[in-house]
């Protein structure tokens, strides 16, 4: 029917929480600390749409390679204006690739990454 949510495990919860909420502007739905797992779970939304569960766990292993490791290759966000979004993220201190064109759709996009080097794509919606 549709994707319900995407789960991300971060290495530094405070840094990732700030990145996803302040830098990317996702809103917090709920934040829970699970003592028995020594783990935070932060539910995030874009507008009214629940999209990301951000987890912390003690000593999670690092991503094996970048970006071609097995598993999730990147997370893509649809934006109204790729140029404005790139400018906004660069002004917030992120290193962003140059804007490219999708050879199949002709739409513009660019990549950056989260604090754990998870590739993030911003794609013309």
The low-confidence runs, each spanning 5 or more residues with pLDDT under 50, are none
Class of secondary structure makeup? alpha/beta
Q: What would the average pLDDT be, to the nearest integer?
A: 90
Strand content: 35-45%
- Main sheet specs: 4 strands, mixed
Q: What is the name of the CATH topology of the largest domain?
A: 2,3-Dihydroxybiphenyl 1,2-Dioxygenase, domain 1
> Taking Cα atoms only, what radius of gyration do you get, to the nearest Å?
15 Å
Number of helices: 2
Number of domains: 2
Outline, from the CA principal axes? Answer: globular
Quick one: CATH superfamily of the largest domain? Answer: 2,3-Dihydroxybiphenyl 1,2-Dioxygenase, domain 1
| CATH top level label of the largest domain | Alpha Beta
Q: From the 3D coordinates, which CATH architecture of the largest domain would you assign?
A: Roll
Helix amount: 10-25%
Strands of the biggest beta sheet: in what spatial order?
1-4-3-2
InterPro entries: Fosfomycin_Res_Enzymes, Glyas_Bleomycin-R_OHBP_Dase, Glyas_Fos-R_dOase_dom, VOC_core, YwkD-like_dom
GO molecular function: metal ion binding
Protein name: Glyoxylase I family protein
Domain VOC: 2-125
């Amino acid at each position: 029917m549709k994707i319900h949510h995407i789960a991300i495990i971060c290495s530094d919860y405070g840094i990732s929480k700030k990145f996803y909420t302040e830098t990317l502007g996702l809103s917090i739905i709920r934040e829970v600390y699970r003592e028995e797992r020594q783990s935070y779970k932060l539910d995030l939304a874009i507008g009214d749409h629940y999209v990301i569960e951000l987890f912390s766990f003690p000593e999670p292993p690092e991503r094996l390679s970048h970006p071609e490791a097995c598993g999730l290759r990147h997370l893509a966000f649809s934006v109204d204006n790729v140029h404005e979004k790139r400018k906004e993220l660069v002004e917030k201190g992120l290193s962003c690739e140059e804007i490219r064109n999708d050879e199949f759709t002709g739409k513009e996009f660019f990549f950056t990454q989260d604090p754990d080097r998870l590739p993030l794509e911003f794609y013309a919606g």
